[in-house]
């Protein structure tokens, strides 16, 4: 074997050893067993559903009625409304709190830190109930306020970490060019930090979307509340499982849509000419810099 081949093998196995024939057979066996186990589990679940008569027409007939469909669509619309308000306000609050935590003024930084740590540690349900019961706020504002306080506090830490993750030299170079702190944050740090923060931001928005289901506990007529009304109706033979099988894919689909949106935005940013590397022409050997001595 040549030295070049040895060098190439070393590069390809720098992080792990390439499995041999025996290891590949063992991995194939593990994959087959895992697949069989998952299929067996799914088959057992389907068997239980049929055994408990979850697919009988009596439990699925309600979804054919126009009134039930309107109830579900109204609940879904209310869920999206609460999520839209909470997501926008959470991002805005997170940006304000992150700015406070990055402030050079110590009182502002301490106040922002106290706010973030308090509401980040407080359970969302407790905040929603407190705003709804103690402050006597209507269900939708109470739900949005609770989600905003919690998710905004979490996003504040995401924003602060993303800004601090930008290379320190970029900040120093911007200050050396005479840029003010606001300009450095707006034009240098934030655009670079957003790309790194985007997965964490989307993940937190997914949490906010799922937490909108807590609204049914304060009588807010969102998607889960509509499903609960259908499932608890004795005239339809208590279709709890069918309601779950209808509502769950919708929640999963909305969360996957958010993830797809984040991926699409990230790709758009990579293709943006403003963020792509610019080819710089090589310097002409005959070109002199100002003040350079003649040879």
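Q: What amino acid sequence fits the structure above?
A:
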């Amino acid at each position: 074997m040549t030295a070049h081949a040895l060098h190439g093998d070393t590069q390809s196995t720098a992080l792990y050893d390439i499995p041999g024939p025996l290891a590949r057979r063992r991995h194939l066996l593990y994959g087959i067993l895992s697949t069989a186990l998952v299929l067996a589990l799914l088959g057992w679940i389907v068997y239980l559903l049929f055994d408990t008569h979850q697919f009988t027409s009596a439990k699925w007939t309600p979804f054919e009625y126009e009134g039930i469909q309107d109830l579900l669509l109204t609940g879904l619309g209310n869920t999206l409304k609460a999520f839209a308000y909470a997501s926008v306000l959470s991002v805005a609050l997170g940006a304000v709190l992150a700015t406070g935590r990055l402030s050079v003024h110590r009182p502002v930084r301490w106040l922002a830190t106290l706010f973030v740590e308090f509401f980040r540690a407080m359970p969302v349900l407790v905040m929603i109930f407190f705003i709804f019961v103690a402050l006597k706020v209507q269900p939708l504002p109470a739900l949005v306020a609770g989600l905003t306080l919690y998710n905004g506090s979490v996003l504040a830490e995401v924003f602060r970490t993303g800004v601090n993750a930008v290379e320190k030299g970029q900040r120093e170079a911007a200050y050396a060019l005479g840029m003010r702190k606001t300009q450095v944050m707006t034009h240098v740090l934030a655009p670079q930090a957003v790309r790194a923060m985007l997965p964490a931001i989307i993940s937190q928005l997914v949490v906010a979307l799922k937490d909108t289901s807590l609204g049914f506990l304060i009588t807010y007529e969102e998607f889960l509340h509509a499903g609960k009304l259908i499932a608890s109706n004795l005239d339809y033979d208590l279709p709890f499982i069918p309601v779950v099988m209808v509502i769950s894919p919708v929640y999963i689909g909305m969360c996957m849509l958010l993830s797809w949106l984040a991926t699409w935005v990230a790709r758009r940013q990579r293709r943006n000419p403003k963020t792509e590397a610019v080819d710089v022409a090589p310097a002409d050997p005959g070109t002199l810099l100002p003040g350079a001595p003649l040879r």
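Q: And what stands out in the fold?
A: Residues 66-101 form the longest helix (36 residues).
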